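Task: fold both queries, return tokens.
Query 1:
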Amino acid sequence: EYYLAFHDKVISRYLTKILNFPNGSKTYTFKEPKIIKNSNKQFRKAYAKAVLMFEGGIGIKEDVQLGVKNEDFKNSIAEILNMHNINFKNKEDCDSNGIWRIWSGKLKKESAKEWLSFFEENTEKWYQIYEIINGYQGKIKSRKEAINILNSIYPKRSKKASLLEIFFIIKNLNKTHRYEIVKKLCKNNKLKSYGGKWAHSLMPYLNILKKAKIITVEKARFGPKKSFGTIIRDLYTYNSNIKEWKVPYRPWLEKEIDYLKN
């Protein structure tokens, strides 16, 4: 937990008397300050923007998520989103860990445009939504630079798989499909299984590589089914032409990455 200690009575009174911040832990007791709740739509939007910037997250599945241990806190953000006609899902009950959740579902271009204004411009979260709308904007000279950028933006968060592992599996195989990638992941990481029956857990990673034009995707036939018809799968092919790649652009990485100008 984090806390702030004030020795200035003016600041302390401003927070407790004007903004109605309760003393002690805020996790379970914090509410939208009345002065903000009773203000106009734009002030309330600015408040929600601050909450989403610090408490919200953009998942690798391209969705906005907010999870807090306070139902009133969650409901006030939901109310503001509704005021601005933002589409989202609002879980009515908390989960087994006592977390109350709001999430957007997988964002498409149009829904991403609606959410973009709820994040501070030129921040990491803003860029991740911006790229859903406009695609990746960065060009690089080498595979090493692409790897460094992808590793910075999408670091390994799971013991089972990472974007770079999947990148190298496809590169080494040149052409492959989901089940072969899963087989390699399981072998490399000593896993019994990964991704479910249809290997759907791979899709967010594959979509990133596809959006970066590091891989191409086409339908391919893989022989007859046991019952009837033909097995058709997505075939992923490594694109060795680095000039065609597009990677996430971040201004703060320019000291480390020699981005090419578009």
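Query 1 returned. Query 2:
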Amino acid sequence: MDAVTVDAFGQFAAAGNGIAALQVCHTIKSFPDAVSCKHSKKILYYIFPGRTTLRLHFFHCSGKILLAARQRSVRNYPDLKQNYRKEDQIMQKQNTAIRRMVVAAMIAAAYCAISICLLPLSFGVVQVRVSEALTLLPVLSPAAIWGVSLGCALTNAIGFATGANIIGMLDIFFGTAATLAAAWLSWALRGVRFHGLPVLSSLPPVLLNAVVIGGELTFVIAGGFNWKIFLINALQVGGGQLLSCCVIGLLLVWALERKGLDRKLFRNL
């Protein structure tokens, strides 16, 4: 009667003799030397002659349970050790993917909220879209690339729906594409720093938006392409981007890294 039981909290207690249940993340591991296999409610039992015994709950296997299972029962089954390792890797990848989506959604919401709160500054010929400072967050994590891109798309769509975005539907696609490309380039240049600041990463949002948004405004205002009007629009948009990215954006990255928040918010992302 010296069997081992693992309950839903990873605690060990005395249990019946000769019962072993090995269940990891809904994946059942079969053993050729098992005398029999049975189940009761949500618990799977493998019965072995003279083996250390274990019982695991089907759908409530916490990290503590899996750790306890490794320590007490898995050492006699090398193939199961490998199975546990694979399951752990899958779970870690799934958790990382979920965290990336959550972080991207939060960044998108922040981008959109800042843009809408400062709506008069977010659109027009002379614009300082403060939310563009978030395009430097890809320096800290690639998850931010999709966050700022989604936020830009939502902002441009809301601006179009409310009439604030004079460029219209065109900006939803080309403006978002410019932000996506700029965010990716900011991430690609993250390793190049001057005095600890990712200065080069702040330039792609300035240059790309100056060209793309400046070109869009030129077509809307002039009804076609005109070099003089384009240069004026590009300089105006670029000036606003320079303030948002090269000043506010760099200060944001500096503050996050200085306080250690970059590691807390974007760890393993």
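Both queries returned. Flag for query 2: The helical segments are 63-72, 78-117, 119-122, 143-162, 169-188, 203-222, 227-259, 261-266.
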